[in-house]
Structures are given as C-alpha cells and as structure tokens.
Amino acid sequence: MGGKGSKSNSSTQSLQLSSSEQEILKRTFAEINENRPFRLEHWQKYLGTNLPVNFVRGFYHLLCGQAEMKADLPVGYPAFMATMVRILKQPPTELPEVFVVLASGGKRTVNSTKVYTLVGTLINSYTTSIANTSEYRSWNGKLEYIFDEALVCYIINDLVNPGAKKNEVISNPIPDINFDEVDISGWLAKTPLMTYLWSAIFYHHFPIADVDSGFPICANEEPIKSTMFNASLVFILNQCLPYEAKREWFQLYNSSTDGESFSVMLNKILDKGPTLILIKEKTGHIFGGFASQSWQINPSFRGTSESFLFSVKPKFNLYDATGYNNHFMYLNQNQQTLPNGLGFGGQLDYFGVWLNADFGTGKCSPTCITFNCPQLSAAQEFEISAVEVWRVGSEPKDEAEGMRDDGSILDGNPEAAHLLEMMGHKQVSKGLRDKNEKNRAK
After folding, report:
1. Which of 56, 287, 345, 421 has the fewest CB atoms in 10 Å of its CB?
2. Both 192 and 249 in a single domain?
3. What is the secondary structure of 87-117 as a DSSP string?
4. Which residues are 381's β-sheet partners?
5. pTM to 2 decimals?
6. Same domain membership, residue 291 and residue 149
C-alpha cells in the first residue's frame, strides 16, 4: 500500500468501487496536483484549514504506507486509490488503526489530548461541512458554531474514564493517558456516534456516495427568531432520537418569543407528538428531556422507555430509562390534590425534572431512579430563565377533540369524575370503553 502500491493492487482495490465512484476519486486525484503524484504540501492545500495538522499528516502517512512519518514521499494514483478504498470501503475493524494514525500524526499510539483534539475537530468539521445543506439553511442562521468542550468530554469519557459511573463525566484538562489500537477499538465499538461522524466527514471531502447529513430540518414555515441550541448539540441529540423522529424538528414554544406562560405553552405542545424540552435556569445550568409521546393532561405518568433526560451545562450527559419504573412523563393542571405542572421521571412531588404550572419556578430531585440521573439543576429548586419545546418528527395526523388515546375527557380530571360518581352519575362510557378494549385484545 502507499508509496509502494502496485497497479495490480490498485486494480484489486478498485473492484470494491463502482465505475462512478472510481471516476470521482480519479477527478479528486487530478485536482490535488494536476494529475501528478503529490506531496504533503499539495495534500495540505487540498484539504484546507478545517482539519488539524496532525490529522492531515496522519492521512498522508497512510497514503505513503510508512510505519511512521519519516519522509515526504510522493503519492501516486495507485497508492491514493488503495488508501481511499481502505478508509471509505473497508469494514469497521480497519477504523481503530486509521483513527490512531490520524490522531497521532502517523504513530502507533496516541495520547488522550490528541484524541480530544481530533474528536473536537471532527465535530467542528462536520458542522462546517453541512453549512451549505438545505437542512442547515432551514434553521435561518440561528444555530451558532461553537467548540463545545462538554460534548467532546462526553464522547471520549468511556475511553479516558473507563468503568466510571454514568454521571461521572470528565472535564478539561483531561488525564494524560496513552492508547493503542485495542483501546481505541473497544471505545469505538461503544460509541457509534464516532463511526457516523467519521463517515460524514470523509464523504464530505471525498463525495463518492450520498450520505445522509444526520442533521434535521427546521420545519417551521416562519423562520425561528432564536434558540438555545447550537449546531453540535442538535446533531448529538438528533442521533439519540428514535429513527422516525430524526428527520425534522419544529419549534412549538419558545418562552423568549411566545411569553412566559404555562397555559400558552400547553396550548402549543398538547397532542403534537414526541418533543424535546430544553430548560435554562438563572444560574446558567441547561438541561432537558425527550418525551417519547404526545403531551396530554393526565393524572398518571405516560410515555415509553425511549424517553430520556440530558444535561448540557455545566457538563453534557445523557440519562436513559433504567426500567425501574414507567414514570417517564407527567402533565396536569387545575387539580386540588395532584401536582400541577410538567415533569419527567421520579414520582409525584419528586420528579427528575419539574416545571411548576405557575411557570416561574421548577425543581429537580437529587436523584431520579427512572433515568438514574443526578440533580440536573444547581439547587433543587430553581428559577426559570428560558424554556423551548421542539416537536421532533412529523406532526401526528390525528388530533382528537376531547378524547385522547381512546379516553374520555373525564380521564384527565379524576376529581370531577369522582364527584360525578358521588352524585349518582355513573360513567356509562367507561364501561363501554372497557368492553371495547377487551374486544380489541381478543
């Protein structure tokens, strides 16, 4: 491979490429140095400044086929093709070696600082690469490009901090540790996000195939005025959503533009399908949750185990459902004996995340067994600075009036139902629904 690649080797490798893919790579080679063997300076100029020097040198090392980067050897067409096939077409088992070489600049081991740098670079390169896509443009320029240190620490946490508890995420400066291909292989196997990022970046620079950007469309017809999300955060959270929820996001409610009102928020989010809620408290902590089903006023918990909580600042982390209970999402109002507000996880009055119906305040319990998360706010009780609610996925087609999930409007008001029973007004419809449910179950 590399500078010693033969024509027969190139021919064998090219069998893995379609004729159109071969033509694209042939044109790419011609662009690098006018269809002649190229050196490091040509390679650096072609890739531009979005990738770090170590990455570019490491890539060139792969092209040259050297054990370590010792000389600036010319790279001909056969070596170029063989290396590109190896990176773009070979199975995931090839990736650890390639990752180590690219992160280290052509060595067989890599330290944690260089891994941190490469992961951050890949995220930034990804957000830059999607800048001209229709998906990104649909956000009306409201997404910032920022280097999100907390996201990078979260991604490399399993590598740098193996065996740590879920809520123990490292911070920068990170420990200085050296890793080999075996270490990187184990980490990549547990971090599919990295494999996706890897493919997205390479196919951007060498577009031999159409690859889904992995970035959602902002489906609002009127351009959104603001959002607390940045491009990196949208990408990461979108990868955590169910497949059917990834294609489009729609801003249902933004307290900074729609007003700080619980009733206004409810009017905008009820029966809209799965949603992401992002909350900023006045201390600066940012956190939120994914609700896997439509929000409905109900005295009971709803949702599925696809729901999750997440923290953004001061550290990024995700908290999946534990299976301990099914207390995923709760919404109620105007009740005398039940909590009034919106919540995720835990139990009544001890929610993982809770927004009071008076809207100005909220509460996070010290622990939440539903999602095994710590307290996400700085203090248990907090003051709300901003709230956003986004529908993720297409809007549900059926929005029943008064009856939801085959239920009566009284199901959302147990106190009124109980009062009617005491007055002698039996709920006939309840018996009919119970009978219908039994018939459907047969």
Report:
1. 421
2. no
3. HHHS-GGGHHHHHHHHHHTS-S-EEHHHHHH
4. 363
5. 0.80
6. no
Q: Six-digit token pair at 264?
A: 């206004």
Enter the DSSP assignment of 18: -
Helices (H), 130-278: 134-137, 149-160, 181-189, 192-205, 231-240, 255-258, 262-269
Q: Is residue 136 classed as helix, strand or coil in its secondary structure?
A: helix
The 10 Å Cβ neighbour count of residue 161 is 17
Give residue-wise pLDDT tens across range 345-395.
999 889 999 999 999 999 999 999 999 999 999 999 999 999 999 999 998
Total domains in the fold of the chain: 2
Burial degree of 13 (CB within 10 A; 0-12, 13-18, 19+): buried
User: Residues 425-429: contacts with CB within 8 Å, 24+ apart?
Assistant: none
Domain residue limits at 164: 19-205
378 lies in the same domain as 276: yes
Tell which of 159, 187, 205 closes a domain. 205
Q: How far apart are CA 6 and CA 28, in angstroms?
A: 19
The set of residues, in sequence order, having a beta carbon less than 8 Å from that of 271 and lying 6+ positions away, is: 294, 295, 296, 396, 399, 400, 404
Instruction: Please say whether the beta carbons of 160 and 177 come within 8 A.
Output: yes
The first and second tokens of residue 48, run together, are: 């531009």
* pLDDT at site 106: 73
Helix (H) or strand (E) holding 438: helix 428-441
Q: Are 249 and 318 found together in one domain?
A: yes
Residues with Cβ within 8 Å of residue 330, at least 6 apart in sequence = 298, 300, 301, 302, 339, 342, 343, 344, 348, 351
Q: Rounded distance, CA 297 to CA 78, Å?
A: 65
Instruction: Pick the closest to residue 317 from 277, 376, 395, 261 (CA basis).
Output: 376
Q: How far apart are CA 252 and CA 342, in angstroms?
A: 16
pLDDT digits 0-9 by tens, 232-283: 999 999 999 999 999 999 999 999 999 999 999 999 999 999 999 999 999 9
Q: Is 119 helix (H, G, I), strand (E, B) or coil?
A: helix
